[in-house]
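Residues determine shape. Take a concrete instance:
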Amino acid sequence: SWLEGAIQCPITNADRIHPEWQDLKVGDPVEMCPNGMPPAYEVAQIHPNYAIVMGHKENGAWVDLWQFVILPQADGSSRLILRTRTMMVGGIWSIIHPGVFVMEYGLLHGVQARAEAMSESATSAAFHPFAKMSRRLPSESFITKARPPQGWSASSS
């Protein structure tokens, strides 16, 4: 996007599960750009197979948080919710936030497109006459079986 170009942050989308990214822990840095700008996000909370929250701190206090939550739906699909909370307002942030919104919109649509393509690919392979009988259908994935931790909601921070 134009914002990625403006901040010299070429973002590459993952189209597969990366084993090296699966052991994320609270406090771990999450780099968005190869050049270190903007600063890495810090993992604030992890709820396995359900949610991850990351953000930035200033003087030990969270100044912005980025929350990704997967909610299983009754039809076997999943809903991905992305929420942002920030204390960074006014000035240059009045220009940056609309660009971030556009990037987040693109992020969600990109995730949806890749998930649907993977689902269609897995479903068509599963119904192929020569497919292995043990192949799992997309509705059996961990995402659709995810449940929120007891007492935790998408509005928690």
Residues 2-145 form one domain. The chain has three helices and five strands.
